[in-house]
From TrEMBL:
InterPro entries to which the protein is assigned, alphabetical: LpqE-like (IPR007410), Lxx211020-like (IPR058248), PCuAC_sf (IPR036182)
Keywords: Signal
PROSITE patterns on file: PROKAR_LIPOPROTEIN
Highest taxon, organism lineage: Bacteria
Signal peptide: 1-37
The protein, known as: Copper chaperone PCu(A)C
């Protein structure tokens, strides 16, 4: 039987230090991954606020919501959808010239991008949230919730006050056979 060779003390210390560093590194990676997961869940919704929000009073059919979206993050944020219990559907719309130069309201392809540390305005005659298929009249002074959905899947719900607004020739009723609206 061969006697056991004693280990040099330096080797044992180095192995112990290597094991400790490996454990520390794995812990750091796990914490980093957890932080990234936490940052990515709700990130856009946490970074964006909607202020001065309101919705146009209407008896039936269609209406629109307006306000100012502010992105407080270091990255652009993309609003891709909205919903409200006040209407069957809500679409992100823009006002743009048609082929003849007339302004038309239409769904905004790809949603609404809010640049980093910037604002995007939802306003009559411009970008807005189009409420289609109102479930009940929207009466002046009432409030209605609107849930905003961002490209990362996060959501936030805001409340908009219903206001009277004569408008600048906005027509929130369907025109023709398509979803475009006269403006």
């Amino acid at each position: 039987m061969t006697p056991a060779r004693p280990r040099p003390r330096g080797l044992a210390r180095r192995l112990g230090a290597a094991a400790a560093l490996t454990t520390l590194a794995l812990t750091a990676v796990a914490c980093s991954n957890s932080q990234q997961a936490a940052d990515s869940s709700g990130k856009a919704a946490d970074a964006v606020s909607l202020s001065d929000q309101w919705i146009k009073a209407a008896d039936s059919g269609m209406s629109a919501a307006f306000g100012t979206l502010t992105n407080n993050s270091d990255k652009p944020v993309n609003l891709v959808a909205a919903t409200s219990p006040a209407s069957a559907t809500v679409e992100i719309h823009e006002t743009a010239p048609d082929g003849s130069g007339e302004k038309m309201m239409r769904p905004k392809a790809g949603g609404l991008v809010i640049p980093a540390h910037a604002k995007a305005t939802l306003a009559p005659g411009g970008d807005h949230l189009m409420f289609m298929g109102l479930k009940a009249p929207l009466r002046t002074g009432a409030e209605t919730p609107i849930t905003l959905t961002f490209s990362d899947g996060s959501t936030t719900t805001v409340t908009a006050q219903v206001r009277d607004f004569a408008g600048g020739k906005e027509n929130y009723q369907p025109s023709g056979d398509n979803a475009a609206h006269g403006g």
